[in-house]
Design goal:
CATH class of the largest domain: Alpha Beta
Helix content: 25-40%
Number of helices: 13
Number of domains: 2
Length: 475
């Protein structure tokens, strides 16, 4: 596997690499554009170790400059155009770029920063620009070749050339990607779950990347029937929009499955025409660490090349706790000065999945306890996410949320808020058959909807304010 665009051109030639609206770019043309962009960077005195920040919507040039910056030995730092003039200052301050590239639509987003040079880029086309002599293997040992930030821009981590390549290997092996696959980018290429999740891995194996600057559910996607699979990578809100619009994005016969970030409510899963497989990863670990398989809803399994542990990175027998990740695809550290060791902490709480059998002591996979705070009810803690997952498996329940409330006896108890057409008595019997006695909600209430973040995740703070202890005590 290689990140060298010239090698891609030699191997796949006239195959379409990138689709951007009505424009189709072959692997041969992509390599030629990279050569042009590398010449422009050289003219701007960008060389080994220089940091190049790029602010743009999803355009061919984002991928062109990614390869071109690597070609001249620099460090590429894509910055999300979804950030605001206030929030973009934090990642830019950490990146401290030598050169800022931007498209005209993002001029107001970048003009406030200091850099050696600011350049508004236009469409990159092959020409007779200065040829760049550089050994494509020279960058393999560099400490940093790519800087990626969290979605809110608060943290930037550095990835070595080796880590970027291993991210591509993990994605292609874990998802079984090949030259006949393509991905539709419904997320900004600046985010690692889009760039490293599918886009860059597919370009290393001869696949196709279809760029969407603005997602328009119901619009035309691709007129080409060659790829056998379209791979969407989005969050629950994006999939819900596609379902609500009922457009061609959800009706394409070539779509085998879709990759989902975060928890997807049951009603969206059921309405979507193909399985939505949840994937877990972070900028510091790489976006492809754990994933669902068809039929394993809620339980995630490690990608190839990754080792995961629950605990402090040395213990392997804890049932619930912080997840630690180890592998060649993890970041070397964050730009705030924190260096990562062999085991990278994620800050997310996981519990071990169900055992393989009643006679087995081995757990099967991992379950994310997302945005979860245990409820202390008696001697045993109750983890809301685990209870919600069981309640949402009822065919008539569209969504469920668990909050802590005051029991009639004066102690604390769990309460279930349920969106769906099922009686509390029936749902209680359903829960009693599948949960431990202390996990069964003390009370069940039907509600028209549950509060959610813009990402689609349950807003537990608002849920507690409306229905939990704070509300029951009068504020």
């Amino acid at each position: 596997m290689s990140l060298a665009s010239k090698r891609h051109a030699d191997r796949w030639g006239d195959r379409t690499a990138i689709v951007d609206g009505d424009e189709r770019v072959s692997y041969t043309e992509l390599a030629a554009r990279v050569e042009t962009a590398a010449g422009r960077l050289t003219a701007l005195e960008v060389g080994h170790g220089d940091r190049v920040a790029l602010v743009s919507r999803n355009r061919v040039e984002v991928l062109v400059y990614l390869f071109a910056v690597r070609r001249v030995g620099g460090v590429f730092a894509p910055v999300s155009h979804h950030l605001t003039p206030a929030t973009v200052s934090e990642p830019m301050a950490q990146i401290d770029p030598d050169l800022v590239l931007f498209e005209s639509a993002q001029r107001d987003l970048v003009r406030q920063f200091d850099a050696r040079s600011f350049e508004e880029f236009d469409r990159v086309t092959p020409n007779d620009a200065q040829s760049v002599e550089w050994d494509e293997n020279e960058g393999d040992g560099r400490d940093t070749t790519l800087l990626v930030h969290t979605e809110d821009g608060t943290r930037v981590v550095s990835l070595s050339n080796r880590a970027v390549e291993w991210n591509c290997r993990a994605a292609t092996a874990g998802w079984g990607l090949g030259r006949n696959d393509c991905t539709l980018t419904v997320r900004p290429l600046s985010l690692p779950d889009c760039l490293l999740g599918f886009a860059l891995p597919l370009l290393t194996v001869g696949g196709r990347v279809v760029l969407r600057r603005v997602v328009r559910p119901g619009g035309r996607v691709v007129r080409d029937r060659e790829p056998r699979r379209d791979l969407h990578g989005g969050r629950s809100t994006e999939f819900r929009e596609l379902v609500d619009e009922g457009g061609s994005l959800t009706n394409r016969s070539s779509l085998d499955w879709a990759r989902a970030r975060g928890h997807v409510p049951p009603d969206v899963r059921e309405a979507f025409p193909v399985p939505l497989l949840r994937v877990y990863g972070r900028p510091e670990t790489g976006p492809n660490v754990l994933r669902e398989s068809p039929g394993s809803e809620g339980t995630l399994y490690p990608f190839p090349s990754y080792a995961v542990r629950i605990g402090d990175g040395t213990k392997t027998d804890e049932e619930i706790g912080e997840l630690f990740v180890s592998g060649p695809a993890t970041a070397s550290g964050s730009l705030d000065g924190e260096a990562f060791g062999e085991w990278v902490p994620t800050g997310d709480v996981f519990r071990r999945g169900p055992k393989d059998s009643e006679d087995s002591n081995e757990s099967n996979g991992y379950v994310l306890v997302a945005d979860d705070e245990a409820i202390e009810s008696g001697a045993e803690p109750i983890h809301p996410w685990a209870v919600e997952t069981v309640l949402e498996s009822h065919p008539d329940v569209r969504a469920a949320g668990i909050v802590e409330t005051v029991a009639e006896t004066g102690g604390m108890a769990s309460k279930a808020l349920v969106v769906g057409d099922v009686s509390p008595g029936e749902l209680r019997e359903f829960a009693e058959e599948r949960l431990a006695a202390h996990e069964v909600p003390r009370s069940i209430e039907s509600v028209p909807s549950l509060p959610r973040h813009s990402s689609g995740e349950l807003d537990r703070g608002e849920l507690r304010r409306r229905f939990g202890t704070w509300n029951s005590e009068g504020g």
